[in-house]
Amino acid sequence: MRTTIQDIFRTYKYFISATVGLIILLNIVFQSSNELDPASLNKTTRSKSTTTTTQKPHQYLRNLQTIESRLGENFPYDPTTEIEKNIWQFWSDVKSLPNGCGKLIDIFKSDDNLKDGEWTHHLNSTEEILELVSTELIQYVPEVQEALAILPHPRLRYEFLRYLLIFIKGGLYADIDIKLFKPLRYWYESRYESNQVYLMIESDYNDLQWESLYNRRLAFSNSLFMCKSNHPFLAKLIAKITYIIHTKKEHILSINWDEQFKIVDANNEPTVSITSQSILTDMLFDYINDANKEHILISVSREGDPETNVKNIENHESSEFSSIYGPEVPENLKYSYKSFTLSVAPTQIDDIVILPYISIHGMGDEDEDEQLDVENSINEGYKKYYYAKSMHLTPWTLLVNN
Ligand SMILES: *[C@@H]1O[C@H](CO)[C@@H](O)[C@H](O)[C@H]1NC(C)=O
Ligand SMILES: *[C@@H]1O[C@H](CO)[C@@H](O)[C@H](O)[C@H]1NC(C)=O
What we know:
402 residues, alpha/beta, nine-stranded mixed sheet, two-stranded antiparallel ribbon, 11 strands, binds 2-acetamido-2-deoxy-beta-D-glucopyranose, alpha-1,6-mannosyltransferase activity, GlycoTrfase_DXD_sugar-bd_CS
């Protein structure tokens, strides 16, 4: 049993190393053309265009595309308004937070960060978030609610919940042990396009040995991210997790997750999971490589890159970055780790912003007492993208014991 699920994840690993990425992608596209259900109900959804009665896809758990389109139908995305100015943090018991986390949460809550009352900070119990999310899901996409309920381990639920919460409510999600350094009003905003998704590069190991140390050549963090409510990228991610849970239910229930979570890569990322940053990373690539949509790379800025900024991916392929190590990428795959590796400034693809490694790590030489950069005094060079840092104060065992 256990080997089976490991095999699945090995497949994902290849996916991100992009050797079979396109095959999987084509498979998904094929499935979608295969599932035009003639018996679709025509009840109206919450879509603003209530006058049209288009055919809605039936609930069908064994089809990824159906789950994704049901999320899209029932939670229509509005790209014209900005990301909701919510900061969301939650923990099993907010009255007994792990040592040191209270102080970090206070920074998020401080006037210096929330200035002008633009942002609203929420600190809630996992139970409250579960209830908030469930109320919405049961009504519109019960299959997602069922998937959440099937998850047998608190860590899996805790991770899935954050995607669901931000999908439904929008805003910034932050683990309770994240130390904010740059007030949100100073975070990068593109002049070309409104930003609806912010992801940070959590790991980017540019070394021939990457595979012996990391699950992914490059991964995005799920400890701190920001997204507009109902964004199709989160719909894709949630659909994928829901699909895996329903189709691999027996395997998932048979795993001893406490044991499984002890097997981690150099980044403390479990080698097997269905909710973690690896799957978030895979789905981001899946989303931006979608053959049906044209996603435009607006800029990438790389250390030692002679033509920093405003260059497109076609040029990128022909330029000489001989010092990038990692798996082969098929020629026809537009985006891969190569699009973001070694970046020293935000990279934007349509409304998605990928923040460089420093954004969630700092330089590593900050002193213990560093304070929120209230006046934005660090506003030049790579260092100005240092936004926050994980203090690693919440080992999963604490979550389990609570
Ligand atoms: C559903 O739509 C079909 C046409 O697509 C129509 O004939 C039928 O009456 C509709 N049913 C309901 C319940 O509105
Ligand atoms: C979150 O906590 C605050 C403060 O306790 C409370 O007012 C709010 O209703 C809670 N939110 C949810 C969704 O339960």
